Amino acid sequence: MTCRFVNHYQLIFECIKQHLDKIISQSVIGGHRQKKREDEGKQQNSMASISHQELPQAKLQTLNELLQKPSNSRDVPLGVTMPDDDGSADKTNTRTQTDIKEAIQSIQDALSSLGVLPPNSTTQTVWKRSIPFSLYQSPKTSQSLTTLMPLDRLPPNAKIYRNLGDGLVEVWTHSLSVERGDTSRPLQGNLSSKLVEYTRGTMGVRRPFRPGGMDDEVDEDKDGGGVGDYLSEEAIKRARDGLTKDTKEAWMDGTLITAPPGVSFEVGLSYEDVFGVSDGEDVARRKRDDAAEIVADDTLNHDTRNPTLLGGSFPGSQTFDKRYFDDDSLFGDSSDDSSSDEDEESVEGDGGSADVGDQPSHVSTTKDNNDSAELDDVDELLSDIHDTLQSPFNQSRKTLDSTSPLIHPPIKTERGDINSKKDLAARKSWAVTEYIPITATTDFHTLLPNPALTFPFELDDFQKQAVLRLERSECVFLAAHTSAGKTVCAEYAIALAMKHCTRAIYTSPIKALSNQKYRDFKNKFGDDVGLITGDMQIGADGSCLVMTTEILRSMLYRGADVIRDIEWVIFDEVHYINDSERGVVWEEVIIMLPDYVNLIFLSATTPNTIEFSEWIGRTKRKPVHVIRTGYRPVPLSHNLWAGLKLHSILEGRDGFNPKGYAEASKSLLPSSAVKAAEEKAKGGAKGKPTPVPVKHAGRPGQQQGTKQDWLSLARYLEREGLMPTVVFSFSKKKCEEIANMLRSLDLNTAAERNLVQSFTIQTVARLSPADGKLPQVIATCEMVKRGIGVHHGGLLPILKEMVEILFSRNLIKVLFATETFAMGVNMPARSVVFNAIRKHDGVQFRELQPGEYTQMAGRAGRRGLDKVGTVIICCFGSQPPDQVILRNMLTGSSTKLQSQFRLTFTMILNLLRVEDMSVEGMIKRSFSEFATQRALTTNEYPKLLTRGSKTLLKLDEEFQKDADTRVGAEDIEDYYFASKDVLSANNDLLSYMTTSGGTAGGALATGRIVLLTANRKQIQYVRAPAIVVRAPLVVATKSGSSEPTIICMVLLPEGFTSSEEDTQSKKLKLGDLNFIGRSSDRSFIVQEVKLSEIYLVASVKIKVDSKIFFQEGVKKAPAMTTSNPFAGAKTMKGRQDDDFFGGVTARGMNAPSTSKVTTVSQEDQVVNEVMSHLIKTEAAEKQAGVEILDLRDCAKNMRQGSSEVEFRQAVDQMERRVMTVRSYQCHNHPNLEKHYATVDRKETLRSRVMTLRHLLSNESLQLFPDFLQRKALLTELGYIDENDTVCLKGRVACEVNTCESLIVTEMVFEGMLNELEPTEIVALLSALLFQEKSDEDLDSELPQRLVSSCERMRGIAIYLGEKQKGCGLPVDPLEFAATSLKMGLVHVVYEWACGVPFSSICELTDVQEGSIVRCITRLDELCREVRNCSRVVGNPTLYRKMEAASEAIKRDIVFASSLYVA
Amino acid sequence: MESIIHNFVLPGQVLATSNSETDGGFLRGHGTYIEIVQDKESDNRHATKAWGNDQSNYNVVMQTDGDDASNQEDDNDTLKTGPQRLIASLAGTVQRVNKLISVIPTSSSVYTGQVGDLIIGRIIGVGGSRWKVSLTCSHNGSTREGQLPLSGVNLPGGVQRIRTSEDVLAMRSLYKEGDLVSCEVQNVQRDGTLILHTRSLRYGKLENGVLTTVPPGLVGRRKNHFCTIEGKVFEKEGANDMQIDDEEGGDVDVYLGLNGGIWIQRKIPSEWENTQGMDRDSRVPLAETLQKLRQRHASTRVSTLMRERIARVRNAVECLRLVQYQICPESIESVVRASLMADVRVGHMICPEWVVQLTEGTRQ
């Protein structure tokens, strides 16, 4: 029986095994889930069918039992993880033979590992898990019509084929229709969500894909569910364990992150859950709160380790003192700014709404209650919009000043705010400056139990911060000094990428730096590192790719495959974004990178790091952690070199030391001058003996050290042990000169000399014999032997690299370098010498900026070798550099990161070519638009806009509805617009006239009667007559703009009543502004009126005592008016019978206010008189129209020439408009004010809404006009068609990236290149790439054809320049041609392509060798691009020619491989 | 129309003659080849022959005058190459850009890809860490295949790819044979093979819609190939009784693949986005939301009304194909409108008589 039994089972197992093999081969681990399910089903099927036909039920039971038995074996097939068993292994399995057992076990293992079968569960429990509904669906490829289902999980409509018992049924697949709703997820979702969970960078650990059942879930379900879709505590704990262990270990241990399918970790699991950070953080925070008392011992140790830290840091348990990271203490400023700013704003807002709240009471007669309530709404909205419209400007201004006002650095906020989860949801700021608290050194290791990369030294705190952030897959902006160790961050990211099987891309601003970094990383990480630059491509499959930013950009435009694998992009020296020429590339790249890519920015310290990070975070929609430190591992000492001695002017973190400066300047003076100075000092002129003329005389000497100077300096340095030294001077020529001065110096020992010798021989051996004899090669080799090196752009690249390598091996003692040496790679020296502190930046000579100085000075001090880095500024003249300049340079804050974003044709064409990016989007997301765009969204413009447009619609509707109430005023809308026209016309005229000051030529003199139209919150009046009581005066308003205002006494419309209490409560009296009084049964008000409210100026002018209505002093000093005994009088009626004449005679503003005392009756008299005048005017206007003052007469004296004609026309027009207005029916309508107000409200809102819409649209972008112009040009030239589709020409232009693409394209399409020989082509193209200035005329030796082609090329450039100008771009054709074409190397390249040796071509020109080589290397790149162009065009001739051209130049020294690379 | 006729050339037709290719006369482009004339039959080397037997309406006049260099060049080059003729190798229209002369084939069954084109294709093979995508959409067209490398697709949820063998094995879970995908041409290789990619989340698998194929020539290049035909197009004027599900806006999405594949589906209603939790600050990335939307789209039944609309659009496209008219949202819309105006049932739209009638307005 046993025997037969065995045989039977053998058979079955064989069968299953085959199945399994199939499954395994098809889907190993991350395999096709559906497939597996299918197979699973099949297996069940086959098993079932076998059991039915051949075996008695009982035996099936046995089989099941066997299958259910937990396996003890731990061999994990195909690297699949085995979950832990609970150890309840059945010990009764002795009754079967061992081979069966093994077979069963292996199958079981396989099954369980594939998730088909949980190892310790029954077959039923397999189904206990929620099954994605798609599993019910029979895949199209499947043959089976039925499928096995657990009975309790049957969908409602399922048709049962047969019942198998054990709670299993076989059902018809077709009956399991799709309409099961979407509560369960379809298959695709399942897989993808798995992938999301497993691959999303957030968890930072690569988790193996483990499909199928996970025992925990089953257990949970057994426990009675309740867990729902979320993770249980236990699961979280498990996950935490899993994450904190290394993935591989977790694998082995079987500790796995388990989650029911479809639950993404985001829901139930956060970092805090995993790392337990939130608790720790809270604790730490609590600790910090009472940190004043606690001084933890362990931190003391820590502090002593960093002497610099000790000085400024907070001796609490928190090592992460703010000041430690932010020596520029930006937090304080910015947060203060922002809070005060906001307060102000909110107060204003409140005030506005309060106004609205109590105003309607004034106008209760004109409005019923309903109306006023509604008015509230609208007015509030209006004021809201108005407020926000004001704010962006403030904000943008502010961001220019300091950091952005909106950033609330969490470190400053209350403890409660930092509850990170909530914080994240309510985040306002994308730049996070919060630090992970690390109290002791051990903390770091518990937080990071399995680092992707370990370092042989203890990391600095900022490095730890960065590493922890990286481990959590978060973006990091690391701003630190050059030598602080930013590379650690980059290296860690690379290691992470390798661990995660993804990619890291390292971009650097310059190619040379890429080469060096490539070597560094290759030494560190082995062969998995690649390098892609313009001229070479090594190991492009590597996990870490080093490239220049331009390459990355073109990859992004192309949508290269590489992009999808990227996990990290490291931007080194990101402050290069300030480069006017190339900075835009960084922005483009940052904008275009997909969102899932994590970014690391390494930068020198910049003041607006946070603003920049904020932009990045906003663009990428993820927080950017800003880690800043002013920390230097080796402190610097800044000195002046004067009188053969060093004078310290700044030590470490101390302040500027004027004493040292004084000493230095003294020692520079000749002895006689010293005496003189001393005498002078005695005489009392204490301080700087710096006569200005001397300073100027001294300047040239300052630039130029003599040979003796340099020799003594070098000897001094050698004697004091300050070698190796880098001497920065700012021109190639100067470097060479000084190096030559030191010809007599030999700084190397014999042993060192041998080392250098052998290295130089090796290097030169890479060159051809002829090239090895180049003067530069020989000179350099000779020089380095003596321990002196030169490093600048004119050097042949290979020599440059040789010098770098020798320097890093400490075999060069003095290196004369240009600024480029300060960029990037870690090449520190003991001391740094500045030859001068002025440099030519391409435009002018200027002092070094603090940032530049810091960057270069940062080269001083080798970590671990030197205690202090010495920086020496040479003073060779008779005067040291100006103290103010020096102080600023040493202690000033570095240059801000600023957007250099601009549109290029290549960018436009590339973006137009693909659908899912747009130029508008690019502009919108650029750093330069950042402030505006942020203001737009943070001010909730969109919300306001929708609110506004909704209200507008409502108002419109209401207006339509109320049409029948406007009897006699049907034309109110037209009237409104017409009168608006008049108002604006008048405003133009009057403001033009008031520019000369005074009374605008008498037009607005005191006593003039004008008609006003205004719609204020409390009082509306239309064409209300008023009398001017104060001539125009320019008053600075709150918003800063100055607008002339006049003060008028306005006759209010009939029927106006005002509550007297109000007047009283405000304690206003006649003579005050905004006083409302009554006389002759009409009300009047004294008000400040803007010119834009004057509807017309009447020709009538009456004499009036202006002081009655308005007293100048009143506003400023209310106390003065209290002297008036009648101040409290309510109305004018009570004081009627006094002096008759006083008012009439009183005239003129200039009379002192105290000189005239008017009695009450006088006042009354005057008021009455004026009122009657005004009422008369009103009547006149209603009947026939008031006579208009001829402004032409008034403005007689102020206009001349052509403006006179214009002015006349304007006046004419204004008068015509007034006539139109008067012709309207409703002009005389009694209730005009009310209707007018309704329309005004509506229309004001409309215009505001329009403004908002405009601001939110693309048109408001700063660069939008530029974009349109460029697009117009491209259309005109045929690069794109009118639908913005890129045409053939455009596609050709897209291929060219290295130079002005339009010129190349035109040349291709003109067939110019086809006419030339390959050698001539390269010569011609060199003009596009060469950048140095060279006035050389084209040689007569060149072939005539080449010369004429050059002329044609110039013609094309000028043509293009003209076209650009024609399209409104600020381009000067000739200048455009001159800057884009530099013919300096045409001859050289021609000869080179013809095969002339390098040494001979060097003689043709005075351009330095390095520049020639660089030009030719780039030429090769251009050749390749043109070759691609020819392919797009479909011209094989050109293709072949370009190939040949490329061949012709690729030889010898120009393409000698880099020392770093090979 | 006139100019098209005049620009039309047949293979073998002489497009231009000139002294030599290097004398600046013309530049050879796609669809042409150069033949060197053996005997100098005409002295008038600088003049150019026009199109075959055609008159002078479209002439390529070689401009060798004006250049200082031309005389000298003549002397140089006569030795190397003789006079040349540029001959069309395809039937099509002549395109001239500056001096470049190329022939754009009218044969619409051949699709030649360009970078950035939208493609609607069908997966026909999985392997070698790439999918083979059939681009053949017209019935009699030659079989073209594009390649969609694994590295060229976005993983669901917008996650980044892990470069392991696992995902190579899991390729079928993304797209399997028979799936329809929309993708973009990333690169055209030298031999004309198209390398595709799904650059953004807009591309990807197509489900729950209708594919119809037309000759590629009928789909013109335009700014946007993801078009939407708004629901109101389908509403008959005056008749408001057509009830639209409040869930669906009734818009129909039309993806105009440049290879001739046209995909029609219901537009994902904007309400879904809201329900899908598009709150901006949540930690769910956009990619995942989009993906969820897609899933929902793929799994949600299309209402009968919507089906009818989709079918109508499909038949409108078919009508346009039958009359060989360019297919763009405007033309589709106008046919749809015409069909609604004429009260044609969807099924009858492609009856020959209706086809003519419905497209009449469009063709003019």
What does this structure look like?
The complex is a heterodimer of chains A (1462) and B (364). Chain A is an alpha/beta fold and 1462 residues long. Helix content of chain A is 50%, strand content 11%. Chain A contains 61 helices and 27 strands. Chain A has a nine-stranded mixed beta sheet with strand order 4-12-5-11-10-6-9-7-8. Chain A has a seven-stranded mixed beta sheet with strand order 14-13-21-18-15-17-16, sandwiched between helices. In chain A, strands 25-26-24-23-22-27 form a six-stranded antiparallel beta sheet. The longest helix of chain A is centred in the N-terminal third of the chain and has 33 residues, at 369-401. Chain A is globular. The N terminus of chain A is likely disordered. By secondary structure, chain B is an alpha+beta fold. Helices cover 24% and strands 24% of the residues of chain B. In chain B, strand 16 (252-256) and strand 17 form a beta hairpin. In chain B, helix 7 crosses helix 8 (329-341) and helix 8 crosses helix 9 (352-363). The radius of gyration of chain B is 26 Å and the shape is flat. Residues 40-80 and 277-283 of chain B have low confidence and may be disordered. Chains A and B meet through helix 2, helix 6, helix 24, helix 53 and helix 56 of A and strand 3, helix 2, helix 3, strand 11 and helix 6 of B.
